[in-house]
Structure formats: C-alpha cells, structure tokens
Amino acid sequence: MVVLQAVMKKFFLVALFITISPCMAQTVAGTTLPPTEPSIREQIKADRERDRKAEASISSQARPWDKDANGKRPWDRKDEPAK
Hints:
mainly alpha; about 0% strand; 2 helices
C-alpha cells in the first residue's frame, strides 16, 4: 500500500508538471496586438456615417433657390386675405 501511494504521488506530480508547464512558459500575460488599419467593412461604415453627418449639416442650411423675391419660401407664405 505504501509503495502504491509513492507511485501515485510521483504520477500525480508528473501529470501536474506536464499540465502546468505550458502556462509557466508564457513570459507576458495578456499581450495586446498593435492597432491595425480598419477592415474594409469598418471603412465603409465610417464613410457612410461621415456622409450622413455631412448630408444632415447641408440639408439644415438655407437654400436660396427655394425662396421667392420676398425671401420667403412658398410653404412659409401665409396668404393675405383678399380685400
């Protein structure tokens, strides 16, 4: 029985060493990859977002060709009551 315990103890230590040794070989824990250029999909999404923002800022500006001689837009004019 004592011999069996000694053999099992050695077997357990060898198994433990085999399973833990790859973890101990790592020199830096949690290395991060250097930033790479964005993928094509990310570039397309960024371009579309930039276009949406540009279009929103342009559409909010006044458009002079929509105004009449008085400087009012047709939908902003209130018809004066006829006398």
